[in-house]
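Title: [Solved] Transcription termination/antitermination protein NusG 3D structure

Original question kept below for reference.
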Amino acid sequence: MSDSIEKAWFVVHTYSGYEHKVQTNLESRTQTMGMTNQIFRVLVPEQEVSTVEDGEVKTSIENDFPGYVLVEMATPQDGNMTDEAWYVVRNTPGVTGFLGSHGAGSKPNSLLPEEVDLLMKRMGMTGEKVVDLDVEVGQTIKIVAGPFNGMEGVIRAIDPEKQEVEATVEVFGRETPTELGFNDIDTNI
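Solution (posted by the thread starter after getting help):
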């Protein structure tokens, strides 16, 4: 298949708690069954969450949609996946079905592009435009998103490639380091 093949994201239902096992199994089956030209990416919809406990910032990974896995597949047939790709995914251990399928072997509906964009943004995988931010180390910034929303911080490091800054925020009288995306800060304070 050529690079111009249409791709779409589908939601696969799994047993809750088995999302990563299904991801691993499906990636392995895709390789061994020669389906790399029809099944491209398998993702568990998770995001990194920071909380402040006892004056310390703790980061954890939370599953946004327990029991679901996202699969990017080729859609050469009127926006539907091929029968072979459907079979490989549907018969992967731990998979109970597709979201948007009406059973009896019917093909599921793919996610809409705006749904995919929202999910990718929540997972920190957006193809967002590169932000050209004019800041320097030691500059005070205002945080406009996340757990430190509304607080001020001081920039300690800048990573233009990742579009992030490392800043310190005063929490309960202690300086707490945090990483912030360029879109999460305001330099006009």
